[in-house]
Write a structure and sequence with these properties.
Elements lengths: L3 E4 L5 H4 L4 E3 L3 E5 L7 E6 L2 E8 L5 E7 L8 H14 L11 E6 L8 E6 L2 E6 L2 H5 L1 H12 L3 E6 L3 H4 L5 E6 L7 E5 L2 E5 L14 H10 L4 E5 L5 H8 L4 E6 L2 H12 L9 E5 L2 H10 L4 E6 L11 H18 E11 L6 H14 L4 E8 L17 E7 L1
Parallel strand pairs: 1-4, 9-10, 14-15, 14-17, 15-16, 17-18
Antiparallel strand pairs: 1-3, 2-6, 4-5, 5-6, 7-8, 8-9, 10-11, 12-13, 18-20, 19-20
Length: 396
Amino acid sequence: MSCQLILQSGKERSVFRRHPWIFAGSVERLAGRARPGDTVEVVAGKQVLAKAAWSPESQIRARVWSFDPNEIIDNAFFKRRVAAAVARRGVSPRLTFQQGLRLIHAESDGLPGVIADKYGDTVVVQLTSAGADKWREAIADALQLATGCARIYERSDSDVRGLEGLEPRVGWLRGEAPAGEIVIEEHGVKMAVDIVAGHKTGFYLDQRDNRKLLGELSQGRRVLNCFCYTGGFSLQALAGGATSVISIDSSQPALDRAAANLALNPQLDATHAEWRCENVFDELRKLKAANETFDLIILDPPKFAPSASHAERASRAYKDINLLGCKLLAPGGLLMTYSCSGGIGIELFQKIVAGAALDAGRDARIIQRLQGAPDHPIALAFPEGEYLKGLLLQVD
């Protein structure tokens, strides 16, 4: 008999709603033995509801692979799921010719703990759950079959793996390193992708469409890009005709990479770009003290709230940064502000930004709500997948 995860009475409702996470507090007991990552049957009463991956170290004790209790979780299962995820990216014409593309978006593609991004002919995979880690080879085989890419690199080094009792793991799963650096083109701008040491899988693909929008808004504007990382927004602003772009980040290596990315694009006027290695909060205060103003400001900070328990402290940080941004905008200026914190929902984020504008003594209106690119889908049954949220504001 298969190992069974017995749910406490009344805790099966989320499974019926097809939510893929089963928390420790919902578990009555484990009937049988299972190692981390093993497949277990999720049972309520005498009814088998789903097949899931067991993770005894995590507060999320199981992640559902399939809500079909008769489906077998094997190599063929991963071939089907990966192929379906890759095929799904062909739905949007905007994605068809992208050189940088998210192929698998974890739970929203029915593959909890699996992230896969494609950069040219290289796929970077990140496995963050015990179940995904157990099926590493099957996932790599399925990706190779679905994409035809000869090179697959693993970047399973996120902090989330520690919550699963997993050690970091990086290296080539298939193929070997290319002869030169990996360079992609996005909206006419070339960017190098550091898959070994860069953030996430090497690049922030989720902001692709928002970078394009930023470029369209930049003509004739003085732009300030905060937390600029390797310059994605900055280069699009230059391409869009910004009169000047000041970019701030606390990481000198990131700024060096940003300057190198600018050098990859001789069509852009490098004299309009300035890179500052500073603490963003401190630098914004200095700019305000110097009575500087900008026509367009981008606030794309790192994750201030990795979970809901960090929301209160993160809220203060988001309010502080948006307060400073509002104060630095010229009348009629545009603020493009983001949160990538899962612990901060869109309603709370909007409330925080509204409070910041009020404290700055500025009137502001939402021009557009911003979200991740369409290769980062959000399963309706899994709202936690909507981690990136943003607002485009006009500030009087």
